[in-house]
Amino acid sequence: MSPLNIKDCCINTATLGFREPLAVSARRIADAGFGHVTPWRQEVDELDPERAAAAIRAAGLQVGAYCRTMYFTAPDAAGRQAAIDSNARALRTAAVLGAPYLVAVVGGLAAGSRDIEDARRQIRDGLAALLPVMRETGVRIALEPLHPVYAADRSVLNTIDQAVDWCEALDPQGEGWFGVAVDAYHVWWDPQLYPALARAGKRIMGLHVCDWRLDTRDPLQDRGMMGDGVIDLRAMRGAVRRAGYAGPVEVEIFSRLDWWQRPPGEVLAACRERLESVC
Q: Which helix (H) or strand (E) holds 93?
C-alpha cells in the first residue's frame, strides 16, 4: 500500500477543539499541508453559508464533508419533522460549501422511550424524507455507525453491516445517495469488520481515523492521536482501499483532556507525522 500524501488528507475541525473561527482553522490546516477540511454546523452560519465557503476557498482547501445531522428520533411528530427540516437545511448548506456528503449521526432512543426498533424506524423514515432535497442539491448522506456505548443517546446504528443494510433499504436501485462513513474509533472492535467493509464497497464515502486509548477516560472526548492506542489503522485503510474507496483519510479527534489543551499548530504537526508513520 502506498504512503499517504498529506495533500490528499483531511482535517475534521473537531480535531482542533473549536477554539478558533473556521476561517482561522482553515488557514492553519492549509498551511500545515493538508488539502481538505470537514467543518461542523456550529461553525457555519447556515443563513449565510457562502461566507464560510469563501473562507475555505480562500485557504485553498476542498471540503471533505459536512458534520452532521440533527438526531432524527423524537417523542412526537413535531420533533421528528423539526429534525427533517434541520437536516434539509444542512444538505443545502453542504451544497454551498461544496461538500460531497453530509455525515449522519442518527440519534439514540427517543426521550422517554425504551423501544429501540421504533427509534430505528423513525430514523429510516427521516432519512427517506430527505431524498428529494438530496436530489435537488446533489449532496449525499453518509451513515456513520457509532460504537454501541452510544446506542442509548447518540446512535442506534452501530455496525458497518447495519449501515449497509439501511443503504440497501433506502436506495434499492443503487443510485448511490446513501453510503457509509467508516470511523475507526467506532468500528475497530467489530469481529465482522473486514467482511463488512468488503461488502460496503463503493458505498464507503469516508474514512475517519484516530485511536482508541487503552486507558480511555471518557468514551466521547478522550480519543487518541493515531498511534496512541490499539487500532490497526494501516490494516483498516488497506481494507477500505481494497473495497474501492479512494477519497481522503480524515483525522477526527475529540480530546478534551489532551490534544484540545495543546496549541493548534502542535496538533496539526502531530496529525501529519502520525498519518505518515502510522496510517
A: helix 77-97
